[in-house]
Specification:
The structure is a homodimer. Chain A has about 270 residues and is an alpha+beta fold. Chain A is built from 9 helices and 11 strands. Chain B binds a DNA duplex (30 and 30 nucleotides) through α8.
DNA sequence: CGGAATGTTGAACCGTTTCAAACGGAGTGG
DNA sequence: CCACTCCGTTTGAAACGGTTCAACATTCCG
């Protein structure tokens, strides 16, 4: 993990406020991003932790198969993905992480990674040393439960992706991914974003939905021609949410966005 | 959930020993099945819990999308699966559960289900009321962590399935599923089973790997012709593990079977 | 035994891949 | 400022893998 590195050690029990991130990509401030992570867990406690910020370029590996990372991280801005590759060097992206999400989490329990994590675009990442959250979680059962909730949602998303890739055609697959992103990039309880930046290459999109970049290209063109997804380089614009949902066969319930994470059960 | 129901309330602090299950399907005793669940968690405590046993026929729903089940269960014998369906009534099996595994677990955190659970064969199921494990987990952090480990492994398997369905051809997909089952049906630390019963229909297999039953049929025939998977109704026989692994592009690490669950971190 | 579910086979079809070539834009160095 | 390169996008043609449809055989189960 390269890039410039700066270390923060925010004062205890103080909410961090940073300057707004000017990147129109996510329109999210650092504060928001960190806050999202916290809202899954316990705000005051997590904010007390020391953490390190990194900026990584697109395509850098944050974790490799076989690694045993000893930290966990919050994606502050940009997009990152988990992927696996088959013997024939075919890549499959199995998760796309959006700003505010925690990753590396699973390694706390599973020890060695069975997949890679790679930045898909230029990313900012806040890293928290491994021990801190572990200690925390032991003390505060609520936090442990909340972190679990995050993995369970990731599992729910993986299940929907299985349906998407296993049983839907190219048109629906791509539309479905766009719908998911529109919702995940919106704030909790808000409607899906009508427009947003999704600076992924067509090859990356193909790797996420199990298609070749060539076919992604022609499908994207077809969706544009039908007025479902007007063409723009790396921006998404959804003229009519209902129509897109229709071709995507999209049902947002699997995202569990209605869940009140503050009051999740404490198992 | 239908079928005959009998209720057990084993004496406190006594290990249950039952008669061997004569079903050659899994060659597992009830004791073993329960023990498997316990080995993920904490044996003595979990065995103290009251539970109910059910026998369900193939094809019965144990949970439906939208349900908020208030219990969790151990699959004692048989196979069960989680599935989702697309708008065109296309089914995708996203998880196959083998004897000894816990399911319904995720509902403890997510409240409403985003998928269905259905018995794929005749199954025996031990059900534990919801409250008990929750209370337990609060008391014993070890148990909570162990249950989390189980979900994280399910997530790791889902990721591999995404690669399987998204990037491998029919031949490799089916071979891969067989390899996975051979390993998951073996005891921890043991080599993969060389032969076992897998009484799934070709349609169910197809739903698991994203193919039609017709194509599963011809692929199965082709695998048999090549001596990789000799044909027998619902039994699997693997003459040469290495060869099958080769066509499946199978790497068992994602199953995390080497993991010592007793000493998993307690997060 | 009879009916339903599952397995089997072949032929036509079609969605997606593969291969190949060209294009466009962004960044770099001369 | 142009030429050059790199990367991603675009397009077309041919090949392929898997689906669909349809008919029939077989097994399972009440």
């Amino acid at each position: 993990m390269g890039g410039e590195i700066e270390t923060f050690r925010p004062p205890v029990a103080t909410v961090i406020t940073m300057t707004a991130n000017s990147d129109p990509l996510v329109g999210m401030t650092d504060k928001l991003a960190i806050h999202t992570a916290i809202s899954i867990a316990d705000r005051k406690l997590l904010l007390r932790l020391p953490y390190t910020r990194h900026v990584v370029q697109a395509g850098e590996y944050l974790m490799r198969e076989g690694d045993s990372p000893d930290n966990f991280s919050v994606l502050v801005s940009g997009f990152a993905g988990r992927h696996k590759t088959s013997g024939e060097e075919q890549r499959q992206i199995v998760t796309i992480h959006t700003p505010g999400e925690i990753f590396d989490l699973q390694q706390l329990h599973l020890e060695t990674a069975d997949h890679n994590i790679q930045s898909l675009t230029r990313c900012e990442i806040a890293t928290i040393p491994r021990l801190a959250p572990r200690q925390l979680a032991d003390e505060r059962v609520t936090i442990a439960g909340a972190l679990v909730t995050a993995s369970l949602i990731e599992l729910a998303v993986a299940r929907e992706w299985l349906l998407n890739i296993g049983r839907r055609n190219a048109r629906a697959r791509i539309a479905h991914l766009i719908c998911e992103m529109a919702l995940r990039l919106s704030r909790k309880g808000r409607p899906p974003r009508q427009s947003f930046q999704l600076p992924l290459t067509q090859e990356q999109l193909g790797d996420a939905v199990g298609l070749t970049s060539v076919h992604v290209n022609s499908t994207l063109k077809a969706l544009a021609k039908d007025g479902l997804l007007p063409h723009s380089k790396h921006g998404v614009l959804i003229p009519h949410w209902g129509n897109l949902v229709g071709v995507a066969d999209f049902d947002s319930r699997y995202l569990h966005m209605n869940l009140n994470r503050e009051t999740a059960p404490s198992l």
